Fold this sequence. Notes:
Elements: H1 6-9, H2 15-33, H3 37-61, H4 64-72, E1 74-76, E2 79-81, H5 83-96, H6 98-121, E3 125-126, H7 130-133, H8 139-151, E4 155-160, E5 163-168
Amino acid sequence: MAGFSAKDLEPYGDPRIKELEKNMTDCYTLAMEVSNIDAQIDLLKESIQHGEQLYEYCKAKGYTKYLREMWIRCRGRNGCFDYLKRTKAELRDLLKEYEEIKALEAARKEISEAIIKLVKDNPGISQKDLPDILPGTDKELLRDTIYYLVKNNHVHQEKRGRSYALFPSQER
């Protein structure tokens, strides 16, 4: 292989690197999947901690070429980026918008409870009727809340014409 030495290939078999990479990416993935900002912040901090350990470990072992190619010049849809810098920027953005997101979470919790009660009291209620039943509720927030209720198995959707009928999860 032109341009590669045996030293360049060592990191690919290093179990400590694999462990740190897995921990870093698993925490990041979980952070993107949770809907609670406090959990998201904790997971991003943990991902950053594992990332910093990975960066330091690679530098100490002389695996800078591996580190640069795998994590500092990550290739994504929008070009190259540094994985750790991007994760830190996402955490900064979350912390900057913390109060706004907390208020949104409180509203989502209130709407979730109202939807779950409506669905339990009226199994098969049409999703398109919810904005009329819950006036003043932002339609995008309503759709987002229903998405998370379905994803977290609190309600079940069945396609009915141009809308969905909503059922309590245990009544499938």
